[in-house]
Amino acid sequence: MTLFESESQYREKATIWRVFSLLPLYAALAGGHIWRWFAINIPMYLGTGGEFTSDIDILARLYDFPRSQEWIYRTWEVKVSLLSKDGTARSLKSGKITRTIKQLRAYREFGSPDVSLLDIYLCEAGFMSQNVFPPSSLKDAITAKIAELSEDGFGYQLLPFEHGKDGDVDVGLLAISPNGNPLLTTFNILPAFPFRPRDPFARLVHRIDQFFEQLPDRSHNHNKQIVFCRDCRRLQLISMREGYTCPNCQSNLILQS
Description:
By secondary structure, this protein is α/β, with parallel strands linked by helices. It has a domain at about 10-30 and about 75-195. Helices cover about 25% and strands about 30% of the residues. It is built from six helices and ten strands; from the N terminus they run ααββββαβααβββαββ. The chain has helices spanning about 10-20, 25, 95-110, 125-130, 135-150, 200-215, and strands at about 35-45, 55-65, 70-85, 90, 115-125, 155-165, 170-175, 185-190, 225-230, 235-240. Strands 1, 2, 3, 4, 5, 6, 7, 8, 9 and 10 form a ten-stranded mixed beta sheet that branches. β6 (about 155-165) and β7 form a beta hairpin. The chain starts with 7 loop residues before the first helix and ends in a 19-residue tail after the last strand. About 35% of the residues are buried.
């Protein structure tokens, strides 16, 4: 089964996994900064006493060297929609912007200093050869989100990409580069208005930092991602290009709830 055809209840996690298996898709999230690590689907309750029960879809530790000596932490809430090759959109969730804003506010209440919505658009094979991005089917939804997100100072990014199809298998990658750089594949619609990190977010990233810094061969880990296995209750560092099972207990990390 291709990613575009994947089951809706697993599509978001599977899509995030696919993004982080492909450098041209996830490198753009660093915004031109050096990244120390990316962490995926991290529960807020880790090291925070359980007051917050949501997950952070994507969390990054970035470095603005040489302009600053301080680390930058950014978080993204991810939403996934489908674009058919005829230009029509599915699973837009355009009527759920109020719920999305509530989720983003929870990130901020948790202490995250830089919060953005990342709308990922899975394009059916053939979409990009027949349509421009964004197609007319998205314009009203995007306009409405810009208005809502800007009021709270949340960032907003769009990431469309397409795979070719060979039977039931994805092949290749087509991604749009707004600036001509093949590693700039996100549309940066709104910048987030950043704050200083606060607890319990600061405690969570301290725990993740400690986990990462004690790993051997850190210089070879920049293309691996940090995940949390809910079955063995451990942070893990894995390459999403190489699979989706926990290296400790072999659990399927995408299927974990």
